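Hi L.,

You mentioned the student needs an example of a multi-chain input paired with its predicted structure. This one should do, with 591 residues in total across all chains.
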Amino acid sequence: KSFLPEIFFSLGILIQVVLNTKFINDLKQNFPIIDKEVFAQTAFMLILFIIFQNDLRIEGFLGTNTLSNDSTIRLVKQVFCLSTIFALVVVNKAYTLQKLNFTEFYFIFSLSVLSLSLMISCSDLLLFYLLMEMQALCFYVLAAFNRNSIFSVEGGIKYFISGAFISGFYLLGVSFLYGGLGTISLNNLQSLLAFDLSSYNENLHYIVLVSVTFITCTLLFKIACAPFHFWSPDVYDGAPLSSTIVFSIVPKIPLFFFFMKWLNSISSLTSFLSTVLISIGALSVLVGTLYALAQKRLKRLIVFSSVAQTGFLVASIGLISVEGYSYAFFFLGIYIITSILLWLHFALFHSYSTRSNYYYNKELTSLYTSTITNLFKDNIVWAFSLVIIFFSIAGIPPLSGFLSKMLIIYNLVNLDYIYFAVILVLISAVSVYYYIRVLKVAFFEPKKENSSQSFKTIFVESGSDFTNFVIPILLSVLLLLFYSPSFFLLLSQ
Amino acid sequence: LTFQIAICLSMFVIGTLGILYNRRDILIVLVCIELLLLSVGILFIVFSIYLDDMIGQLFAIFILTVAAAESSIGLGILTQYYKITGDISVIDIGMLRG
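Structure written out for the whole complex:
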């Protein structure tokens, strides 16, 4: 009774699988029409999922303290599903340019969304392992989705190997935690770690410290933070565009939410933890910025900039306080909006450039920065929305990216981590360079002779352009009014 | 207890060294991943006997299931990789650099 939306969603997935395979077997010529229907089905299920979260009868526990569902978690689930719906819109735009017309994309996507929404309400390390593996398996398949391309399958192999390896480390950490303390639930962990551990067995403190390190490293890996980010450029670059959009937008909110819960349980172990996490965040910003300076491909640029943004988030979560968490959520919200917009523009650029490439009989190439030259003369609307997006990521004042970064740095300075705050500010100043370089290419470089893209056709489909008009305005308006759902108190379990 | 933990940990270490020092194929990596998951499963059962608790055995069964699913997907991706390139040696996975 208390998890009815998830049950509805899983039944919807099963029905969708059955009906769509039947239809594909019958009407083999009409692939694109069926594809739009599957998109509509998935979006419909997600919208119903959001609406069902408003019913108060689903609050409660399932299996003592493994799954819980209170008002904070419902709100986070609604925000998460909203972000997945927007990601689905972007994926639909990107899907039509690739010749990958497999409907299984939406099933696998829905399965991963189901596991991620359960991950939001999970407070148990065993259940987190199961959900993490379910989501990871779905993403391995999505990374290797383009079966005829060496890039895609190689990205899938790399993702699979590194992901499976890291989940082995996670299991080792959980097993030592279990052997040392006897519990797996996060609530019990929080209560147990408040005691002095060395009075029972001298080595217990070190065992728990080692296992906590392993589990935290696994969580940082899944988020693509700096010492463990090595999989994300190759995987995100090689995967087809629709999969990359899913990877970079969809798993962020649940993974960060669980990370916050985990840090909440661990916080009474050492006082060292905050410093370590904030230094990892600073390292991530440094690594992301330095690697992004040398990139020529747009996709890799976006990936490395997301590694840097993750560094900001980890630095903010590292202060294990209510304000740290709420600023992190604010940053996460802004980051997801800008990610959705950025990938939308990317998908539009890619689709137009490949259409003109098909006209000149070329292959589907990856998008370099030099392909968006002369945007100012071709399409002013897109150029200015790109300006707003990139300035928001870079952190220029009238836009909300500045507000989110400023709040995090303000919080760091308030709690006397001035050294790390200075590092963050300096390195994000360096990162402004490569954001503005993209804009320089778009605005100031003339068109070369053999580049055959022209972005002069503006209004193609109404769904994408609605998002395009609303959200850049939202980005600049957000500076003035505080985005209040994100300033909520994180769970006090 | 120390002896059992030592066995499981040495299996885990053999698995990770197998992944890191691998120069032949990708299939070895898949086998070593199975070794990792198996060693952690046995470790869970050891701890469950030591603590006299059920959750360890439950977790071990779940690990077994997930390992099976994961290795099947890994083999699927490996087969696809083999269909495109002719071999599965580790030397040339450098197509995505730069």
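You could point out the following to them. The helical segments of chain B are 2-20, 27-51, 55-84. The mean pLDDT of chain B is 87.

Best wishes,
N.
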